[in-house]
What does this fold into?
Amino acid sequence: MEEGILRRRRNNMPDKIFLLLLVIFAILSVNTAKLRQAVIYLGLFSLISSFVYLIYGAPDVAIAQAAIGSAISTVLYLVAIRRSRVFTVYFIRHSEPPSLLPPSGVQENQANPKGKQPKKANHKIPPPKRENSVPDYELLLKSLEQYLMKMELEPHVIFTYEPSQSLLKKREYDLVLKPDGNKLQVFGFSSDYHLDQLEQFFSQDRFKSFHITVARQEEGVLPNAQID
It folds into this structure.
């Protein structure tokens, strides 16, 4: 009698192990911060569930679950993520935009007690000249967007006046660009394999005037590069 109970318990051990693994991979797939890892965890969840179906005497369901749920669905999800991923780029501006000024050569109306028309200005305010020492960041951003689209990524550029230190703590970005005159700091995660390709992109000869430095950031740790 006791030997039969022990055999049943031993036979139920694989069931308990597989059921425990199902719970573990389900929690990991929900709590992971990376979508690609979540898809892989779900694929493992489907694979383990196919073993559970097999143990409980449903081989046809087990084969369907292993083929569709674990193999085909996982591959389709990974391909879809690769082709439709949004790549978020933050471009940090130094200060708030200046207040709007009247157009060049136009004066504001002033009180004239005699009712006479105000005299026109004898000179016009020349438009501000662009310094030759400051590189064209608009050209760089356009080139970066085109390069990301070639990598089958959807670029999403956000202009912000938020300090870089508080922005880097949010972890809601793929790339952060911090310009300072002709110097440009680039912040990205070292775990992102796209950063190696982007570093080669920034090292091109046409971007030598920007003096670009790339700072690789670990998960949960601020980069060693100088920030606000």
